[in-house]
Amino acid sequence: MALLVLVSTVSWTVDKHLCMGRVMDISLFAHADDCGMEEAMAAMDDQSIQNSCCDDESFTVQGQDDLKLSWNDFDLEHQHFLEAFAQSYLNLFVPVEEIPAPHEKYPPPILVKDIHILDQVFLI
């Protein structure tokens, strides 16, 4: 549950560097590394050539800022469900002093003959 809250509240930024239509680098939360084409163009000292083969793309997914939920925000059916679920979950951890034996009040049957010996059925 904590992981779900963390993922839904954090803003995610994905940055991609494209060179000639191919994805060269993808980065989360930081700037993607370039392919080195800009340095090669700067080393050639040619201002007339435009660097049209490289492109940077980024998109951001904004996280949720409002996490305050009120009991009154839920419908009556949701309130009943949450209350019943909480009660049943908390009753799982109530300690039992003595485990009841279901056959405590009933005496064992009176054996007239030993059936295992008559049928010659033995546990090995």
How does this model look, in words?
- The chain contains 4 helices and 3 strands, in the order αββαβαα.
- The chain is an alpha+beta fold and 124 residues long.
- The relative contact order is 0.12.
- The model has no long low-confidence stretch (mean pLDDT 81).
- Pfam families: DUF8199.
Could you give the distance between the termini?
A: 51 Å
Could you tell me the radius of gyration in angstroms?
36 Å
| Protein structure class | alpha+beta
- Report the count of strand segments: 3
Q: Quote the average pLDDT.
A: 81
**Shape, principal axes of CA atoms:** elongated
| Biggest β-sheet: strands ordered side by side in the sheet | 2-1-3
Q: Spell the H/E element sequence.
A: HEEHEHH
Largest sheet: 3 strands, antiparallel
Helix content: 25-40%
Strand content: 15-25%
Pfam family, one: DUF8199
